Amino acid sequence: MNSGDNLIEEIGIKDIIFSLIMILSAIVITNRWLSRFGESDPLIILASAILVGALGAMILSADLRLRRIERLVESGDRSLRSSIQDVEDTMDQKLNAAIQNINNRLGEISKRIYR
Description:
The chain is an all-alpha fold. The protein has one domain (2-114). The chain has helices spanning 2-11, 13-35, 42-114.
């Protein structure tokens, strides 16, 4: 039941309500349109409701996929930032060590010059 609640939270109540409104409006529009030409066929009304429901489900599925891809990109971005920070810290340590080494050698050279 926890995964079902999670799916509803991920999709959003608002999106589900909009999908239901799409289906109900398809039923009403199809029924009214067909009743103008005489007796309406329930099979056509059901088919139009299924068609609109499938369209709504497809839109919600695409939205879910886009949200998942966005989360993956964001987590990759965080990992990349962390890796860049680690490389930057390592380079700082190496440069500081090299600068210290150069300063020591310059000190030795200047001591030799003044002797």
